[in-house]
Amino acid sequence: MRDFIAVSFFYLPTLIRRHHIGLIHANTTATRFIGTIAGWMTRVPVVWHLRNVPDGLSRIGLAFFSRWSSLKSVIAVSEHTAKLFPVPIHKKHIVHNSIDLDEFDPTRIHSVLRDAYNIPQTAFVVGACGRPLPKKGYHILIDAVSQMVRQFPEKDIRCVIVGGQNSDKQQAYDEAQRTQVHALGLTDRVIFTGFKSDVRPYVCGMDVLVIPSIWDEPFGRTALEAMALKVPVVGFRRGGIPEVIGDERNGLLVESGDTQGLAAAITRLMNDPQERITMAE
């Protein structure tokens, strides 16, 4: 608490005055509180950038500081995220996340996925990308792939999960997924790539990318990146995902946690290559 007071009331206001700063941009819970106080002391306008999901305690603080005169505008990455923050409506603005299309131009990126893991060009590859955490729902994707393999034993279906581990929680979930894959007899079907500093050469080698998150993603940037790489996307209908994936237009949406529905959506795209192309355009 002492550090919070020192930074908010003394250190940051001093820096603002010394460097003639004209705008304070805050994009985490702590910086929103600190920045709003410092802006009030220095009469410098403050802008909040909302790109996460607030917990109970932070919501109380956000509701309090959102009414300070120094806070002029609140930018949320999605309509869904904006609704979660107790902020006066006249201060809220929606600006969806964006990406540099040149960086995700599939004509400039060489896919390494199939060569790196000896996946035939004729195989159907469904994948996911992100940190291995229970809320990401990769276990549901694995169950959906298991259903597909049982239903279509003649098809070469592969599942690739791109993402590494950097915490005990992530490591535990990663191990649980591997145990699940072994129990379902999918060790020759499911591939865990581990951490990749650049995921583009792996995502662009997929036929379909799935976002099976069972929590409310604030936006869903991964879906945007996959679309730019001309990879159709399937996701659960929750959080900010429906604002990125237009159901039946550039992807398919499934009710959250519906394993059978997810398997059906992936199967639909697997059996219709032309629809995959159309949705990816």
Percent strand = 15-25%
Total strand segments: 10
Work out the helix count. 11
How would you sum up the major sheet? 6 strands, parallel
Poorly predicted regions are none
Q: Report the mean per-residue pLDDT as an integer.
A: 93
Tell me what you see in this structure.
By secondary structure, this protein is α/β, with parallel strands linked by helices. The strands form two sheets. The chain has a six-stranded parallel beta sheet, with helices on both faces. A four-stranded parallel beta sheet has the order 1-2-3-4. Helix content is 40%, strand content 16%. The model has no long low-confidence stretch (mean pLDDT 93). It contains eleven helices and ten strands. The longest helix has 17 residues. The radius of gyration is 22 Å and the shape is elongated.
Provide a compact summary of the structure:
By secondary structure, this protein is of the alpha/beta class. 40% of the residues lie in helices and 16% in strands.
Question: How is this fold's topology laid out?
Answer:
Layout: H1 2-18, E1 24-26, H2 29-42, E2 46-50, H3 56-65, E3 71-76, H4 79-84, E4 92-94, H5 113-116, E5 124-129, H6 138-151, E6 157-162, H7 168-183, E7 190-194, H8 200-203, E8 208-211, H9 221-228, E9 233-236, E10 251-254, H10 259-270, H11 273-280
Parallel strand pairs: 1-2, 2-3, 3-4, 5-6, 5-8, 6-7, 8-9, 9-10
Quick tags:
single chain, 281 residues, alpha/beta, six-stranded parallel β-sheet, elongated
